[in-house]
Write a structure and sequence with these properties.
2 domains, Nucleotidyltransferase, domain 5, five-stranded mixed β-sheet, single chain
């Protein structure tokens, strides 16, 4: 293996495809291809976009001078079955499941296929790292008050684990031996309890858990939601679309961009200030609620994601939750960097390479 690792990361999103080449941990180049909605509308199924996206990406990479020799290609992990986090080799079982039996329809399901396509050209491994379906919950965290409903995990696994590792490194700690509460602050907010390298509990914003965010509702009282449906003013489909895409800041203020909300606060908008305070409070409350899952003292509370760039928001959350311990704001570890870090840890022997599906429930747990 060369001393300077070269890792290509590929993230197919809903309206774009992004690729970043990392050389020895630094960004060599970063390309993003926008996909207009009318272009996307021409494909009946997400899988039909695979070859057109690959061709566009190959062309863009060539325009940036190519990749040179590669040690690994990492694709964004898609909607597989629940699985422990870690670094997984893309194999036929994974590809078949993503193509035929995905647990959700999203462009990220193309990530493994794109990784294979480019890895074959270079004779290197094709990988996925900490997909959104990463599931390491304690059994006690799955149970709800209704036997028919068990909690499931869909969260910012890449960003959370990458930020926790960065915070651990700053503090001179071993992530696999530490205890962290990590809040990913983005269009959706997820808060996880990272205990000894495992995400033992985490909120699922897609299912309406945790704090409200710029676009999602967060936890709601159940009976009033039933009353909304019983009133006939909402269909389940219409309400679902609002709860996961037009709730939170958007519903209260007609605006999901926190920078605009803060500008309104600076201009004296009392409603914007009240909603901002409520969101910060809800995040801090959820952070505190995760501490029992750590089964020990908090090494650090970690704030990451796009909204962690807001000094005002991070300061307020720190004021409310700082009694738990040190608060670390990590804004430099985004999803592409976290994907590359996972591959680097595997290539240097610090975490194992896993097969899919994992043979045992504990397979794939982060060890570094």
């Amino acid at each position: 293996m060369r001393n300077m690792l070269r890792i290509l990361t590929i993230n197919p999103g809903s309206t774009s495809t992004r690729a970043v080449l990392f050389a020895d941990g630094a960004t060599a180049w970063d390309v993003e291809i926008a996909h207009p909605r009318d272009w996307l509308a021409g494909f009946p199924r997400i899988m039909d976009q695979l070859e057109p996206r690959r061709e566009l990406l190959a062309r863009a990479i060539a325009e940036h001078g190519g990749t040179g020799p590669l040690d690994a290609v990492v694709g964004r992990g898609g909607f597989l079955g629940p699985m422990p986090g870690g670094v997984y080799a893309v194999n036929q079982a994974m590809l078949e499941e993503l193509a035929q039996r995905p647990t959700g329809q999203h462009a990220s399901n193309l990530g493994a296929f794109l990784a294979v396509a480019f890895a074959r050209e270079h004779g290197c491994p094709a990988l996925v790292v900490d997909p959104v379906v990463t599931d390491e919950l304690d059994d006690r965290a799955r149970l709800t008050g209704l036997p028919a409903i068990a909690r499931r995990t869909v969260f910012h696994a890449l960003g959370q684990r990458g930020a926790a590792r960065e915070a651990a490194a700053r503090l001179g700690l071993d992530y696999a031996a530490g205890r962290f509460v990590v809040a990913h602050l983005g269009g959706g907010i997820s808060v996880g309890a990272h205990r000894l390298g495992r995400v033992a509990d985490v909120t699922n914003a897609m299912d309406g858990e945790g704090p409200f965010s710029p676009e999602r509702c967060g936890a709601l009282p159940v009976l009033p939601v039933l009353a909304l449906l019983e009133s006939g003013e909402w269909t389940p489909a219409a309400l679902r679309a609002v709860l996961i895409g037009r709730a939170g800041l958007s519903a209260h203020l007609g605006e999901s961009d926190l920078r605009v909300v803060e500008a309104r606060m600076d201009a004296g908008d009392a409603q914007a200030a009240n909603v901002f305070e409520a969101m910060a409070y809800a995040v801090a409350k959820t952070i505190a609620s995760m501490t029992p899952a750590l089964e020990g003292p908090v090494d650090a509370v970690v704030l990451c994601g796009g909204m962690a760039r807001s000094k005002r928001l991070c300061a307020r959350i720190t004021e409310l939750a700082g009694f738990l311990g040190r608060v670390e704001v990590v804004t430099g570890v985004e999803e592409m960097a976290a994907m590359a870090l996972g591959a680097q840890l595997m290539l240097t022997g610090r975490v194992p390479l896993r097969d899919y599906p994992p043979a045992r429930p504990e397979d794939g747990l982060a060890q570094a």
